[in-house]
Design a protein that fits this description.
Shape: rod-shaped
Strand content: 25-35%
Helix content: under 10%
Number of helices: 0
Distance between the termini: 83 Å
Order of helices and strands: EEEEEEEE
Structural class: mainly beta
Length: 158
């Protein structure tokens, strides 16, 4: 009678393994976008300005959040659309001069994806930009009483 002993090794059965390294590459096109929470209509409301008001009128500040590629390292700069040749954020509404300013808030760092967490894609860096608007005191305005509006475009460059 013959005794056959099986070993727990695949090598004993004539199998072997081979390895090969793979080089992975990707080209990232970094960008920023308006965050979903800031994507709707944004209204800067001065309220009622009484002609020859002895006090300046300031609109409530609005904050627009921009989401950007993580670790972009850039500081946002701002530009306003050209209105009457001015790109400084100044304009006239109902014959009343106004000024718009935009300032950077503190960046919130995003998080890289967590491996082992299904579907986790990480989060972007978030840059808040606060827009302030004011109208100087003592202005006469133009035309009859009533509401006026204009659309301005803020371009943020990273």
């Amino acid at each position: 009678m013959a005794l056959i002993v099986l070993m727990g090794s695949t090598a004993a059965l004539g199998q072997s393994t081979a390895t090969k390294n793979l080089t992975l590459s990707a080209t990232l096109s970094s960008q920023c976008r308006v965050a979903a929470a800031s994507s709707g209509a944004i209204n800067v409301a001065f309220g009622t300005y009484a002609a020859f008001s002895p006090s300046a009128v300031t609109a409530s500040a609005v904050t627009i959040n921009f989401e950007c590629t993580r670790n972009l390292g850039a500081t946002p700069s701002f530009g306003w659309d050209a209105l009457g040749g001015a790109t400084s954020g100044e304009g006239v509404l109902a014959g009343l001069r106004y000024a718009l300013t935009a300032t950077n808030g503190t960046r919130t760092n995003g998080a890289a994806p967590v491996l082992g967490t299904a579907g986790d894609i990480g989060t972007p860096d978030t840059y808040p930009v606060t827009v302030n608007a004011s109208m100087p005191a003592g202005q006469a305005g133009t035309g009859p009483s009533g509401a006026a509006s204009a659309t301005r475009t803020l371009t943020v460059t990273f």
